[in-house]
Amino acid sequence: MKLKIIFALAFIFFNAVSQGRPSSSKFDKAAFYAIIKSGDKEEIDNELTIVTTSTIPEKEAYEGFLLMRKAGITGKPAEKLRLFKQGRIKLETALMNDSENAEYHFLRLIIEEKAPKIVKYHNDLEADKQIVQKAYKSLSPVVQQAIMDYSKNSKILHEQDF
After folding, report:
1. What does the alpha-carbon distance between residue 89 and residue 66 come to, in Å, rounded to a whole number?
2. Nearest residue to 90 via CA among 58, 131, 119, 54
3. pTM of the model
4. Cα–Cα dist 45/47, whole Å
5. For 23-61, what is each residue's pLDDT tens digit?
């Protein structure tokens, strides 16, 4: 009898905890782009956890982007290179699986524009720019806003392009 009560209490507790989770544990595209803009390592780590545990279709691209973004703010050179390579594989795989996805091209463009020359990740800048420009109006308002925000400081994307 005591064992049944313990299991019942554990079940009730587990349900209460899982239902009481903050909404930040669910993926939010607007929050994703805000975190990218902030460049805060802790926020990127938290978002990486959210993306990794999510079931969203863009999971691989977002995870790859976040890993490469994190590489840019990590201190140790070996860790930077490991994270960048890991992220690059994920983002490029997502692009190979959905080469028409303009949002993925936008994410790659962000990394390409800011990546150090030594990693040789700049080959698709112009192509990505063209894809983003052509598909801009068909993208979600959140992504359109992210593109406009990014274009204010970009050397390759400009507000007047849209």
Report:
1. 12
2. 58
3. 0.82
4. 5
5. 446 899 999 999 988 889 999 999 999 999 999 999 999
Q: What is the C-alpha separation between 109 and 64, in angstroms, rounded?
A: 13
CA–CA separation, 59 and 50 (whole Å): 10
Report CA 78 to chain centroid distance, whole Å. Answer: 22
DSSP string, the chain: -HHHHHHHHHHHHHHHHHHT--GGGS--HHHHHHHHHH--HHHHHHHHHHHHT---TTHHHHHHHHHHHHHTT-S-HHHHHHHHHHHHHHHHHHHHH-TT-HHHHHHHHHHHHHS-GGG---TTHHHHHHHHHHHGGGS-HHHHHHHHHHHTT-SS--GGG-
